[in-house]
Amino acid sequence: MVEQDVQLDALDAKLLTLLDEEPRIGVLELSRRLAVARGTVQARLDKLITRGAIKSFGPDVSPAVIGFGVTSFVTLEISQRYGHGAVAAHLAAIPEVLEAHTITGAGDVVCRIVARSNADLQRVIDQIVGYEGIVRCSTIIALAELIPYRVLPLVQAAAQNPTKRIDTGRSS
Asked: Does 116 reside within a domain?
C-alpha cells in the first residue's frame, strides 16, 4: 500500500460535501456557493481527481431498489495454489459480487454480495464456491443497514487535521 499525501483543507471539505449532497452541481454554481473563483474550484477538483481522492462522478445505485434486496457478507478461504488474482477474476465475473477485499484472520477474502431473495442468494453462493480455488465459504446475511457507506465524516476529519497522511491502498 502506498501513502498518498492528499491534504484536505476546509475548502476541499466544503467542495466535497457540496458534490456529495448535489452530484449534478456545476463548477460555476460550486464557485458561487463557496464564494471563490471558478478557476479555484476547477483547480481543486482537478487536484482531487488526479490524486484519486475523487474516484467517480457516477450515480450511486441502490441494489435494493433495482430488485436485489438481500445483502450478504461472505468470507472465503482460498487455495494458495491459485492465488488472489485468479479468485478475484472469478469473483469479478459474478455481477452480484459488489466488492471483495483480501483480509487478515480466519479467511482470505471477504465479499459483499447481493441477491434478489434467500433462494437467489444460494444460487450466488453456489456460483462463488463453484470455483476450485475457493476451499470454504462462510456467509452472513445483513438484516438492516445501520450506517450506510459514507466518507464525509472522514473528509471533515482530514480537513481538520491536514498533517496526517492517508493510506489509499493504491500502489504507484
From this structure: yes
From residue 100, give the alpha-carbon distance in Å to each of 7, 50, 51, 64, 75: 27, 24, 23, 19, 9
Residue 12 falls inside a structural domain = yes
Instruction: Please count the structural domains in the chain.
Output: 2
Q: Which domain CATH number covers 117?
A: 3.30.70.920
39 and 86 housed in the same domain? no
Q: Which residue has the cell 434467500?
A: 118
Q: Which helix (H) or strand (E) holds 87?
A: helix 83-92
Tens-binned pLDDT, residue by residue, of the chain (172 aa)? 445 567 889 999 999 999 999 999 999 999 999 999 999 999 999 999 998 888 888 888 999 999 999 999 999 999 988 889 999 999 999 999 999 999 999 899 999 999 999 999 999 999 999 999 999 999 999 999 999 999 999 999 988 886 655 455 555 4
